[in-house]
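Following the same procedure, the fold was encoded as tokens, giving this record:
***
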Amino acid sequence: MPSGEIDVMPSGACLSDYDYDLPADRIAQHPAQGRDESRLLALLGERTLHLRFSDVQQLLAPGDLLVVNDTKVMPARLWARRSTGARIEVLLLEERQPGEWLAMVRPGRKAQLGDILGFEGATAAVTEITPDGERVLRFDGDVHELMRQSGALPLPPYITASQADPDRYQTVYAEREGAVAAPTAGLHFTGALLAKLAERGIDVAPLTLHVGPGTFKPVKVEDLANHRMHGERFEVPAETVFAIRRAKDRGGRVIAVGTTVTRALEAAARGPDGLAATTGVTDLFIRPGFPFLVVDGLITNFHLPRSTLLMLVSALCEQQGNGGLPRIRAAYETAIAEGYRFYSFGDAMILLGAPSA
């Protein structure tokens, strides 16, 4: 680079490009009274519409396909005691093998290597401390029964005053337990709304991605080229691959219900044979410049500043030719000014590309 020339990364390549100020009172502590009564900000080409989520059926066309994440949040938040009597909060993250779990422990200093933690009806030994400070616990009892009897749903850290029924932090189609956070875009759907969509010829197909704690971990590098995503387990079944191909063949759009669905579909499409039934772990990092192979539209909530989820939304907006990051920044400013509610229990946004020719 010649002397005196300033090396400037393109817009969207820096973490600070995704920063914004959010008043604390915009962070939803409770869901809307009815799931589909939340608000919906629709970005349709150059148009911006302010709707209710139940209106989503008017934005979709016969032949479109919604892909949903059927993961179910585990009651993975537990409490234990050391032999000293010290109380410890434990968040189970993932079962590595029968009886062995990766966990986050708070305060971590009270769960050192070799310690025995006592739960209601079970004990666990700390057998490893990972470089990220997580603990590997070896249990001597039935962990799934322990969670059912004593566990609580692990709400995100920014929800501090919610009295919501635990069912409201599960989608109505949640089936496969394994997540520590809900795929929140799906929280807006009701059984009645899904039935109306089916009547209009709009299909729904499932996949599974178990949302992990990395969803809430901050990006720590300014140059996004140096960021590495956490891995999350996913499964795209053959039936969903067939539904996607059928929708594409008849000119329909594939609309991902949430960023987790987007990551799973785009990961499955990058195998040696293109889109195929896939089971694995994805650490796909989607940001502006990413070439989408499957997803045409997205239903999502409003995301944290400086988050990879906000980067993903900006990337799809860019591919749709709808303005990319600047459009998303403007939409967020509008949402804040208009009193939209943010994050997991908040309102929704839809980015919808044009139907296929």
Remarks:
- The first strand starts at residue 39 and ends at 44.
- Residues 128 and 136 are 5 Å apart (CA to CA).
